[in-house]
Write a structure and sequence with these properties.
Elements (H helix, E strand, L loop, with lengths): L3 E4 L2 E3 L2 E3 L4 E2 L3 E2 L4 E3 L2 E4 L4 E4 L7 H11 L6 E3 L5 H4 L2 H7 L4 E4 L1 H10 L7 E3 L5 E3 L4 E6 L9 E5 L4 E5 L16 H16 L3 H14 L3 E4 L9 H11 L4 E9 L4 H15 L3 E6 L5 H8 L2 E8 L1 E2 L2 E2 L4 H10 L5 E8 L5 H8 L6 E2 L3 E4 L4 H28 L1
Parallel strand pairs: 8-9, 9-10, 10-11, 15-16, 17-18, 17-19, 19-22, 22-23, 22-24
Antiparallel strand pairs: 1-2, 2-7, 3-6, 4-5, 7-8, 12-13, 13-14, 14-15, 20-21
Helix pairs in contact: 5-7, 5-9, 6-7, 8-12, 9-10
The structure holds MU-OXO-diiron (FEO).
């Protein structure tokens, strides 16, 4: 663990977790993650913004000791989840006079999970400030940019915005700043899909506030610091927008190639019509890739074999994930092969009640797809194309 200076008196003192492969035992982390903690030193007081994942506490405390910080007066808890709050007791032990600065909701979530005495907290309201002498911290309470307790901290004079989970990325890198654009956006988009997408409506309210602040840097608590905030703000504008893109995602599972052959045929017909298509094999695919593809997609085509009267069980978990992530999908349909009967289209629809999508007629085929079934897939490709044309026309009309 190291300390890296953003500007004089403001340093990143968190940890890089190169090897972590799952978050919350749910979210795959192909690039590991970081738990960022920031030290802000004013002329009179010193603050630590967010702390550390419990498993890295010993390393974190050793780092703080090595830095020989004479006093830490405030521990700012932007969020109660333990990857940011888990080391608060150890920091309080090291700096017995420090107060934990946060909102009421966050205090409750922290004390529900961690043993921190109530009198160690300094509770703030939205827009409250605390002075560090020549530096000021301003708190912006922004519920639901992950949990209901979340808030942002603005370092006013230096115009740095500490956003905790918001704008984060599970991206273990030695780069302090988000200079590697491709990797940064890939990991930030995946993170948005898995963590933030269900809270898209809330972010729509907060983004104009962040734009008004026009921070010089955005320092989240996962991933590199944005020293050019436009990179992530532009991406978020697209991701949270109500307008999806002309993109079709096809999660699929097939037992004897009958369904997968239908997928291959439909993929080609959609490409011919100028649509972006992302097929996703639910049996061995990384669910993070599926989530990421749903961020901007207009259309979801579920392709599944029928098994014992229902959709193949391997697609059920993936569809449950799609449901809880609440993507902005506008059109939903089903294709697949069955043996002697199927009503999987209705069952698949019932698995995703959160989707506000228009349901298009399915193409379900007994056994292998023959010529008339392929004509049905042509019909579906046309309908998906027409629906997406309609979307484009609406977007143009709205501009
Ligand atoms: Fe990075 Fe919601 O915790």
């Amino acid at each position: 663990m190291i300390a890296r200076e953003l500007i004089p008196g403001v340093s990143a003192v968190g940890a890089i977790d190169w090897d972590r492969r799952y978050f919350d035992e749910l979210v795959p982390l192909p690039h590991g993650t970081t738990y960022n903690s920031y030290l802000v030193q004013g002329s009179e007081k010193t603050a630590l913004i967010d702390t550390m994942y419990p498993a890295r506490t010993a390393e974190y405390i050793a780092n703080l000791k090595r830095l020989n910080i004479p006093h830490i007066d405030y521990i700012i808890a932007n969020h109660g989840e333990q990857d940011h709050s888990g080391s608060i007791p150890a920091v309080l032990e090291l700096y017995p006079n420090a107060r934990v600065v946060t909102n009421k909701f966050c205090r409750k979530l922290i004390t529900d999970a961690i043993d921190v005495a109530a009198d160690r907290f300094l509770i703030i309201e939205n827009e409250d400030i605390i002075s560090l002498g020549d530096r000021t911290l301003r708190f912006l309470i922004t519920p639901w940019v992950h949990w209901p307790d979340t808030m942002l901290t603005h370092l006013v004079e230096d115009n740095i915005l500490f956003t905790c989970d918001l704008f984060g990325a599970h991206n273990a890198t030695s780069d302090l700043y988000a200079t590697e654009v491709g990797r940064t956006l890939e990991s930030a988009r995946r993170y948005y899909a898995e963590i933030m997408m269900p809270f898209r409506r809330h972010i729509q309210k907060y983004l104009p506030m962040v734009e008004k602040i026009a921070p010089r840097m955005i320092a989240a608590s996962h991933g590199p610091v944005y020293n050019r905030p436009a990179l992530i703000l532009d991406a978020y504008r697209l991701w949270i927008s109500d307008e999806p893109l002309r993109e079709v995602v096809i999660p699929h599972v097939s037992m004897y190639s009958n369904t997968s052959n239908m997928v291959l045929y439909l993929v080609d017909r959609l490409i011919e019509r100028g649509l972006k298509v992302t097929p996703f094999n639910v049996v061995d695919g990384d669910l993070g890739d599926l989530a990421s593809s749903l961020v901007t997609a207009s259309t979801l085509v579920v392709a599944a074999s029928t098994v014992l009267g229902g959709p193949h069980p391997s697609c059920v978990g993936a569809l449950n994930l799609a449901n809880i992530l609440k993507p902005k999908t506008r059109f939903l349909t089903t294709i697949g092969s069955y043996g002697w009967g199927s009503d999987i289209a209705k069952k698949i629809q019932a698995l995703m009640p959160n989707l506000e999508a228009r349901v298009l007629p399915p193409v379900l085929v007994k056994g292998r797809a023959i010529e008339e079934d392929l004509k049905e897939l042509d019909r579906l490709a046309n309908e998906i194309y027409e629906c997406n044309e309609e979307l484009t026309a609406q977007s143009v009309a709205a501009v």
